[in-house]
Specification:
Layout: E1 2-6, H1 11-22, E2 26-30, H2 41-49, E3 54-56, H3 64-72, E4 77-80, H4 95-103, H5 106-112, E5 118-123, H6 141-160, E6 164-169, E7 171-173, H7 181-190, E8 195-197, E9 203-208, H8 209-225, E10 237-238, E11 240-243, H9 244-258, E12 265-267, E13 278-279, E14 283-284, H10 294-307
Parallel strand pairs: 1-2, 1-4, 2-3, 4-5, 5-6, 7-9, 8-12, 9-13, 10-14
Antiparallel strand pairs: 9-11
Helix pairs in contact: 1-2, 1-8, 3-5, 4-6
């Protein structure tokens, strides 16, 4: 297939692009900016992708350049993975601005692509997604923006007769990741320090990124090929579900098998419950993937941190 994929410079976007290209698909990857500047993990990802995909700088979603790109090629699918994430952890995250950026000129995009199917990436942290006990609201303003983006896409795709699929991601982790929790674990242990886990009771869904990418490729093929189902169900892949304390124990055990790092940690009694206690996806794929090798994932993950000094710079 020929696929137009946004967000290829992001952590999961990089993995999705690489997996799709390795599966024989032709990818055109427009970027929001020119990605020129000091070395960063984003530039490292793009360097790995060059030669496998066509990278188009300075073509944000819905812009005139993006619309020209969409209209001049014969695509089989639009994979809209990119989204506004600036200050995504902040309570002051610009929800309206993010929605505008994520959906800019969507009716024109749909027309330019002549109605090809669309796969939109969602988040377990948006409203009405995931298992959170009694709480199904948006996890944060960022989560709210993702949920509103989905509603916007669904409205215009339905009114245009365009097939739309939704791929909902939990907490991915793996090589080339951003400096979030698992990256913090690896960096701290590599320096010989003790990890202090202040929120061990939160229940989260952490999914190895290579397995997530395999699931994405399968879902993309399904959306492109299953013409009989105009409104396919969303897919909610799930990985290691458990408390953050249990995740730290798992990562510590796997890293200790492969390094001489002590991988010590303490689980502090949690007093901050400002976030929902639980938010996880619904469809476990850890035991359902016959091709995925868990041991190889951990081998490559640990190798990345032992060999790559840029793994925590963004």
């Amino acid at each position: 297939m020929k696929i137009l994929l946004t967000g290829a410079a992001s952590f999961t976007g990089f993995w999705f692009a690489r997996r799709l290209a390795e599966s024989g698909h032709e990818l055109v990857c427009p970027l929001r900016g020119d990605e020129i500047g000091s070395p960063s993990i984003r530039q490292d990802r793009l360097a790995k992708l060059r030669g496998q995909v066509q990278i188009i700088p300075s073509a944000p979603f819905g812009s005139e350049r993006f619309l020209g790109l969409a209209s001049e090629r014969n695509y089989d699918l639009l994979c809209h993975h990119g989204a506004e994430v600036t200050n995504y952890r902040s309570p002051d995250f610009d929800v309206v601005g993010a929605l505008k950026s994520n959906t800019l000129n969507l009716p024109r995009v749909i027309a330019a692509l002549s109605g090809v199917p669309i796969v939109l990436t969602g988040s377990v942290f948006e409203q009405d997604e995931g298992d959170g006990g009694d709480f199904v609201g948006a996890f944060s303003p960022y989560g709210l923006s993702k949920g509103l983006t989905w509603q916007y896409f669904r409205h215009f795709c339905e009114s245009s007769g365009v097939r739309l699929g939704k791929f909902v991601i939990p907490n991915p982790f793996g090589s080339f990741e951003e400096p979030r929790f698992t990256a913090y674990l690896m960096k701290t242990w590599k320096e010989g320090k003790v990890v202090d886990v202040k929120t061990p009771d939160y229940v989260r869904d952490n999914l190895p990124v290579d397995l997530l990418s395999d699931a994405y490729c399968s879902y993309v093929r399904q959306i492109a090929s299953d013409k009989a189902n105009p409104n396919p169900d969303a897919f909610h892949p799930s990985g290691y579900v458990g408390t953050m304390g249990e995740l730290v124990k798992l990562v510590s055990n796997e890293v200790q098998k492969r390094t001489d790092w002590p991988c010590e940690f303490t689980l502090t009694r949690q007093t901050d419950f400002s976030e929902p206690l639980k938010r996880v996806n619904r469809q476990s794929i850890l035991s359902e993937s016959g091709k995925w090798n868990e041991s190889i994932f951990w081998d490559e993950y640990v190798k990345y941190y032992t060999e790559n000094p840029m793994s925590n710079s963004e």
